[in-house]
Write the structure tokens for this entry.
Amino acid sequence: MECAVVTHSRLEKGEKGLQPGGKLEEPLIVRPTSETVIGYMYSQWVQSYRDLPLLINQWCNVMRWELRTRLFLRTAEFLWQEGHTAHETETEAREETLRMLDVYADFAEKFLAIPVVKGRKTDAEKFPGADATYTIEALMQDGKALQCGTSHYMAQNFAKAFDIKFLGRDQKTEFAYTTSWGVSTRLIGAMIMAHSDDEGLVLPPAAAPTVVAIVPIFKTEDERKAVADFADKVLAALAGAEEVSAAANRPSPDGIKSCFFDKSTGQKIVVDWRDARPGDKQYHWEQRGVPLRIEIGPRDVAAGTVVLKRRLDREKLSVPIAEMSGPWLRQKMDQIQAAMFQKAREYRDQNTREAGSFEEMKKILAEQGGFVRAWFKPDRASEARIKEQTKATVRCILSEDPTPTGKCIYSGEPTGSRVLFAQAY
């Protein structure tokens, strides 16, 4: 893994242009991840098996040496969540590694509605120093793969490097077994690329800051008052009368009135009273991926209904206000969340293809993209040559069997490994 090394504090303008200024007494290494920092501290904190397991989770910014940045997906600096653990036994450490992989997969699928594939990285792709790296991989709408999170089983490698030792139950000194795992703001990019369309964002309800945007439609002042009264009734049905009363006392200098749909998550329902055309307001919220838009005009008030539009598929319905109380909105959110996940999963499945030979795999990658499932005997040299010829890498090993059951598409040798190839970010 490459990292940035800072040797000078600034650039100064000289006769030959900008030149390095004040030189640092010691080089400053801007870390790409925190195993070295945490490893050293663990060596100070761990003395006995009674100190284990030791589990640390942190949010921090880290740096990567990216020659070509891509917003959210590959940036020079990004915010991420990383965890580091130390354990008494190999079994506990392995269980923690796979448990966190499952946590990340559940979050991606249940919260972001992104279907992922779980598997192990090859030796060529695993984290340096790890005994095994596990990953969740997703397929974006342009046919490229995106690594959405990783979990590393370090065995005793880092413990030996940083002297993380403890007195065991048998009164013998042992090295700890460690793990690390992390996800980053890359998941924001994954969510955008997995669901959005040419009109803008399409947000899963579980991740949307605003779940409903109400757009009033009126011409006269009398119509405005009638629509406003009806909008308050709609808000009361969706969010509760107490929340509507609280919202009335909140300042709204931008003309947008808001109520909490769920205070625990901070998700809101808004009424857009800005001085703008209804079409402009509708487009505003459509671009921002709000799952549901509700339009209320004089005719709707007279009929006791609203016009409901889903951002996902632009479905348009007329809904009586009498149906909108209780769990109605939560059910609508759950339906949209499930539909988004299903749509993304169908796209992934339709773009996952089998290859029985290297030539077939090259043809699929060149003409269709997506995931390619194949028998492959992991080998650093072979992977490097495949990447050079196709720009594709082994995203993960799906299954491994010590008894060869297939023939490697590249070497022709028998292998028990099934893998996913793809071009990736």
Remarks:
- The domain at 201-333 is CATH 3.40.50.800 (Rossmann fold).
